[in-house]
From TrEMBL:
Family: Belongs to the carbohydrate kinase PfkB family.
Name of protein: 1-phosphofructokinase family hexose kinase
Keywords: ATP-binding, Kinase, Nucleotide-binding, Transferase
Native organism: Streptomyces yaanensis
Signal sequence segment: none
Domain Carbohydrate kinase PfkB: 13-283
Length: 309
């Protein structure tokens, strides 16, 4: 199974309005609620691709119950979330029906007590022992140590489970130093980590800091993967317009699926780019239309080359 970790799970609420204007009251035309937080989106996409997934992290309160009820109805995802006293946060995405632009509001999440963090670490140690790969994704809720991801990377590496890390700021900086197999920052996260806005310079620097492979998501310029074996770029066939929430999570799912299926890097990257684009075209994060994904997969252009041995 693939283990996904979402320390700051969320009940993702998406509101659609006809047109979003400041200083105005809006009628919501459509509401959706989904289990969210980056790792749970990764889990849902992997399960839709036919992989067995175990999802851990924290859940609590009425929002946590609602999230777990929905997860129980998601085929292929085993719920291994650790219960906590505080309530799981909500995130709100407001989609402007005229322009398609999305405005995202993320609550900070519940305060995690030291005993809850210890209970999670015990559960994680058991789960990671039988994981084919691990995804560590999203922000940290208050109370979780800033070096949490570094610790979780080290635990996974100690039992030989490959790790993908997708986070930002100081948790990313410390996590990268623990030598994860893949980091998947977007352009802003990569620039914040390395101090460079040049993707070539920044990916090289992120590798020097400890990541084996850096996969940078560069919006319309697609995905750039750099590791000791080579350097590749995957670009979707056209500019994809829609709701970008969760596009990066779907790319992470594509990379993990390719990893456990031992696909060569160009194919992994093509999958990640096609899944990401298919999610932008879907109404909410963590979902995609299978046919759209397969059509896009045929059209993704991958360029680059392996390093000469
Ligand atoms: O990537 C989209 C998304 O995963 C949303 O589903 C939402 O839950 C949010 O990001 C969480 O991100 P954060 O960085 O706050 O953990």
């Amino acid at each position: 199974m693939i283990l996904t970790v979402t320390l700051n799970t969320a009940l993702d609420i998406t509101y659609r309005v006809r047109a979003l204007r400041p200083h105005t009251s809006h009628r919501v035309t459509e509401v959706t609620e989904r289990p969210g937080g980056k790792g749970l989106n990764v889990a849902r996409v992997l399960a839709a691709l036919g992989h067995e997934v175990t999802a851990t992290g924290f859940a609590g309160g009425a929002t946590g119950r609602s999230l777990r009820d929905q997860l129980a109805r998601t085929p292929g995802v085993v719920d291994a979330l650790v219960p906590v006293e505080g309530a799981t946060r909500r995130t709100v995405a407001v989609v402007d029906g005229t322009t398609g632009d999305t405005t995202q509001l993320n609550e900070p999440g519940p305060v995690i007590a030291p005993a809850e963090w210890s209970a999670f670490l015990d559960a994680y140690e058991d789960l990671v022992a039988s994981a084919a790969a691990v995804a560590l994704c999203g922000s940290l809720p208050p109370g979780v140590p800033v070096g949490a991801y570094a610790q979780l990377v080290r635990t996974a590496r100690a039992v030989g489970a490959p790790v993908l890390l997708d986070t930002s700021g100081e948790p990313l900086r410390r996590g990268v130093a623990a030598r994860p197999d893949i980091v998947k920052p977007n352009a802003d996260e990569l620039a914040e980590l390395t101090g460079s806005h040049d993707p070539s310079v920044a990916t090289r620097d992120a590798r020097r800091r400890g990541a084996h492979t850096v996969v940078a998501s560069l919006g319309a310029q697609g995905l750039l993967a750099v590791n000791a074996e080579g350097r590749w770029r995957a670009v979707p066939p056209r500019r994809i317009q829609g709701n970008p929430t969760g596009a990066g999570d779907s790319a992470a799912a594509g990379l993990l699926a390719g990893l456990v299926e031992h696909l060569p890097w160009p194919q992994r990257l093509a999958r990640a780019a096609a899944l990401s684009a298919a999610t932008v075209l879907a109404p909410v994060a963590g979902e995609f239309d299978r046919r759209t994904y397969e059509e896009l997969l045929d059209q993704v252009a991958v360029t680059g080359e392996a390093t000469a041995a």
